[in-house]
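Message: A physicist's question: would you kindly supply an amino acid chain plus C-alpha cells?
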Amino acid sequence: NLSSIKRNIRNYRHRKFPDEPLNANFCLPEEWKTTMGAEPKTFLIFDNKQADSRILIFASNFALNILSCAEIWFMDGTFKCSTTIFQQLYVIRGKYKNQIFTCVYAFLPNKLKSTYITILQQVVINCLQTSNNPKPKYIVMDFEIGAISATKHVFGDSVQVKGCFFHLRQSVWRKIQHLGLSSVYKNNKNIRINCNMINALAFLPLNEVSRGMAYLYTIIPIELLLVAKYFDDIYVSGTSGTPMFSPNLWNVFNVTLNGGDRTNNYCEGWNNYFNKLVGTSNPSFWLVLQCIQQD
C-alpha cells in the first residue's frame, strides 16, 4: 500500500545518509555544507561547533542578496522538523517585490536571547560579505521574548518589530481552552463576539487601546472575565504597570490602513509545506538538511 511504499522510500533515503548523530557533537561532511545541483555553492554560513549549544546556519548568497533588499522580514521557528539533537529549526524570510523568499535556515539548541543574537549577527555579517547591507524596516515574528529582545539588540531603533496578529489570536484561544471554555465558545454566539472584541483591540488607534480595554471590562460576560484579565495583564496594562508585550508591538491600526502584513502566516504556510516535504514526525537530521537543500 501507499504507506508501505513511502516507508520503503524513507528507509532507502536513510541508507544513503551518514549515521544519525547521537548528539550535537558531530562532524558535518563537506557535501552537506553546499547547495545541491551540478554546481554546488556555499550553503553553510555559520557553525559554532559547540557541542552543548550547537548552532548551524544555512543560506545561499542569492538568498542573502534577496534578504538584504527586503524591507520586511518574517521570522519563525518550527519544532516538528527540528530533529532530536536540535530544539528547533528557525527560518528567516524576506518580502521582495511582493514575493516571499525563504532565505535563512538555522538549527538551534534553545530559545535563548543570546542564540537569536548569534543568528541575526551572523546573517548581517554574511550579507555584508556579499557587499550588501541589510536594512529591514519591519520584522514580523511570534510573541517570543528572546527573539524580540535579540532583534532590538542587533538592529536597535532602526527596525520596527511587530508581533504576528495570528499568534495574538492564538494566545487568546489557548487561554479559552485552558479555562475550559471551548464548548461555551463554540455554542454561544455572544461569547464568540466578545472574544473577537478582545482581539479587535489590535485594530484601534494605538492611543485608544487602553480605553478600549477598560470599556470591554464594562460589557464582557462574566465567563470571559479571566480571559480579558489575561489579555490585559500580558498585552495592555501589565500586572505592575508594564505588560510583557506592549500594544505598540501588536497594534495593527497603521499596518492595516497602509495595506501591510499583519501576520507571518507565510511562515505557517511554509511550515506545513516543509513538514509534508520531510514526510515524517520524527525526521533524521540528514533528511531535514536534504529537504532544506532542495527547498
